[in-house]
Design goal:
Length: 398
């Protein structure tokens, strides 16, 4: 006797509904956007830890992300926005900006002549204003790195010996260190600290930068100091390099700077084309996307010199394919390796006290891809083993 058709259809409908529910729950498309402007937010980190397993996703250039894992609590974070935790997903997630962006200004081909003259004067006087004297400041460095399977956060506090005319590098003396990670590694990561210090905007500002960019004044900018103006700049030859500068036109000093650079600019400025070609030929290494966001505010000391008091840095690198290399793997294990979605902040302030005895660790220059000497490798490993307390990243911390 054949079963009744409705008895066969009902289980199939239930099975289909369950499969659809599982599919929807397992994979959701969302958009991350600015709460004020509703503009998409690229490279926002989305992550959770469920049943001891870490999961993450990253929004693309359109702010879109695919959530392909289950969650009870989901964290959304971005360097320029307030962190947000959700227990369910709407179609669009709005993040609150940590600071208000100035209005977009069109950079015209014709610019006032005084702008370049003022910037050239900054270049002439910057060593005297920014790097003339040795200084020791208190520092607070925080960094966060996320990839598909890993979460890493590190905070370091202590004293920073600043670069000067007779002191060609930075050094630190750490008094506090703390790591939060998904596994039991206890390595410290100061790579982003070095990038924020050695890739300082004023230090890199030179005649070549001035010639290769166009500048416009932002007439909407307001300041209590009548001599302060905001200049908006954009590269003449590359579409992925733009930013803003606040300049004191009376003293010819930079008060703050903000720069966004993309793949073409970063490959040209931050990496040797010859070395990148060699690495690709040897191991298949490639870079498909490389975005950097850098913001710095400078503060004046009583003696009239300036220092970078607040710095924020975000770097997103996508698309590499490296063959198995035992030596490289061993070095990555010893030095902490790297992550594709990185954010960091640095706060510097006047030191309130100086201990009688200080152990200084020299900070080598910043790099993204290079051939290292044995001395440099040992220096990297030493910096990866600064004293630090350690916590496992827990589910309830979301």
């Amino acid at each position: 006797m054949n079963p009744r058709p409705e008895r066969m259809i009902r289980p199939l409908i239930l099975l289909f509904a369950v499969l659809m529910a599982l599919s929807v729950h397992a994979q959701r498309h969302v958009v991350v956007a600015d709460k004020d402007t509703h503009e998409p937010i690229p490279q926002a980190s989305i992550y959770t830890k469920e049943n001891g397993v870490f999961h993450s996703a990253i929004s693309n250039d359109m702010g879109e992300a695919v959530i392909h894992f289950n969650f009870r609590r989901l964290t959304f974070s971005h360097l320029n926005y307030e962190r947000k935790v959700l227990t369910s997903l709407p179609d669009t997630i709005f993040l609150t900006p940590r600071y208000r962006e100035t209005a977009e200004v069109v950079v015209r081909n014709i610019e006032p002549k005084w702008i370049r003259e003022k910037l050239k004067q900054v270049v002439k006087t910057k060593e005297k204003v920014y790097f003339s004297k040795p200084r020791v400041l208190s520092y607070d460095y925080q960094t966060q790195s996320i990839d598909r399977n890993s979460y890493y956060a590190y905070q370091s506090k202590g004293l920073m010996q600043m670069k000067s005319l007779d002191h060609d590098h930075y050094s630190l003396s750490q008094t506090e260190g703390h790591i939060v990670s998904v596994d039991s590694t206890q390595l410290t990561d100061v790579a982003n600290l070095r990038r924020m210090l050695y890739e300082d905007f004023v230090e890199e500002l030179d005649g070549g930068f001035i010639r290769s960019h166009r500048f416009s004044e932002n007439g909407e900018f307001k300041s209590a100091n009548k001599n302060e103006l905001e200049l908006v700049f954009r590269s003449k030859n590359r579409h992925d390099d733009r930013g803003r500068i606040v300049i004191d036109t009376a003293r010819c000093i930079i008060r703050s700077a903000y720069r966004i650079s993309g793949t073409e600019t970063n490959k040209r400025e931050r990496m040797s084309a010859i070395l990148l070609t060699f690495a690709h030929a040897m191991s298949g290494y490639r870079i498909d996307k490389w975005n950097r966001t850098y913001h710095v505010t400078y503060t004046e000391l009583p003696d009239g010199t300036m220092y970078p008091s607040d710095v924020s840095y975000k770097c997103y690198i996508e698309g590499y394919d490296k063959e198995e290399d035992p030596a490289a793997n061993e070095f990555d294990e010893q030095s902490g390796g790297g992550f594709p979605n990185m954010e960091a902040t640095l706060h510097l302030s006047a030191a309130t006290s100086m201990p009688d005895s200080i152990a200084w660790y020299q900070l080598p220059g910043s790099w993204y891809l290079r051939l290292s000497s044995e001395k440099e490798r040992q220096q990297e490993i030493t910096l990866s083993h600064l004293p630090a307390t350690f916590d496992i990243y827990k589910e309830e911390e979301n």
